[in-house]
Amino acid sequence: MISKLLHGDVTTWVWALALAVGIGWGVTSGFLKARKIQPRGFKWSVFRNEIVFGVLNATITGFILGTARGKLEAMGWITTLHEPAAWWRIAGEYVLYFVGFDTYFYWLHRWMHVEPVYTWVHKLHHRSTAPNLMTTLSVSPLESVINGGYVILFLLLVTCHAQTVALILPTNIIMGLYVHSGYEFLPRWWNKSWATKWFISATFHDQHHRYFTGNFGGYTTVWDRLCGTMRPKFERDFEAIVDRRKQGGEAVAAEA
Ligand SMILES: [Zn+2]
Q1: Where does 7-86 have alpha helices with state H?
Q2: In the chain, which end has fewer C-beta atoms inside a 10 angstrom radius, N or C?
Q3: 80 CA distance to ligand 1 centroid (A)?
C-alpha cells in the first residue's frame, strides 16, 4: 500500500483519506469511546513494547514463512489453480480453510497455555491485558510461525484456486485486527441469534487477554462451547459492554 501511495495510485489515496476521516470522526464524535471494551486498559508502556516486538515479529515471521512458501512453490509442492472456477468450489475451499484453521488454532492455543510452553511461546502476546491493534503483531516469532504456518500446511494439503487464496489472507488480517481492536462494534443480539453466536467477537478475545483463561477460539466459539472453555459470564459481560453505548460511553468496565 505504501509503495502504491508513493506512486500516486488515486484509489489508494481515496481509501487512505476515507480511513483517516473515519478514524478522526470516530475519535471526535465519541463513537469509538462508547465502544471501548476496557475504557481504562490502555497503557503507553505496553503499547511501546508492542510496536518494537510487532515490527521484529513481522520482519522475522514474514521472512521465514515467505521463504518457506516460495521454496515449496518452486519445488512444486504448493500449486495454485488460476483457471476460472464455480462459486461453490471457491466457497468449499474457503470453508475448509476456515474450519481447519479454527480447529488448529483452538487446540494449539490451549497447548500454548500449558507451562513451559506458555512462558516460551505465548507469554509475550499476553503482556497486553487490554488489546489494541498493535497487539495483533506483538507475538513471539515462534508462535507466529506456528499459527501462520497453517496457511502453508493448508496449501500443501489442498490445491486451491487463486480466488480462495485471495480471500484467505484478508480474512487472517481482518480477524486478527478486529479481535484485538479493543472495541466492540457488534449488536446486542449477536450471541443470541443461532446464526451469529458461533462467531467470536472482539469482546470474546479481549476477555481472553484480560483474564488469561477461557475463550481460546480464533474464528468461532464452537470448540469453546463443546469443551466448556467459554467464560461463564462472557455473554452477560458482552451485553453490559454493548449497553454502555446507550449511556454515552461512560467509562464503566464490565466486571466478571
Ligand atoms: Zn492465549
Answers
A1: 10-29, 31-34, 44-74
A2: N
A3: 33
Residues 6+ apart with CB under 8 A from 43: 130
pLDDT tens track for 241-253: 888 777 654 544 4
* Nearest partner of 35 among 204, 206, 209, 243, judged by Cα: 243
Residue 217 has a pLDDT of 93
- Per cent of the chain over pLDDT 90 is 36
CA of 173 to the centre of ligand 1 (A): 18
Which among 214, 202, 208, 211 is positioned nearest to 242, based on CA atoms? Answer: 202
Q: Tell me, in angstroms, the distance from the centre of ligand 1 to residue 107's CA.
A: 11
Give residue 20 CA to ligand 1 midpoint distance, Å: 31
Please identify which residue in the block is written with the cell numbers 512453490: 73
Give the Å distance between the CA of 112 and the centre of ligand 1. Answer: 7
User: 234: burial class by Cβ within 10 Å (0-12, 13-18, 19+)?
Assistant: buried
- Alpha carbon distance 34, 242 (integer Å): 9
pTM above 0.90, yes or no: no
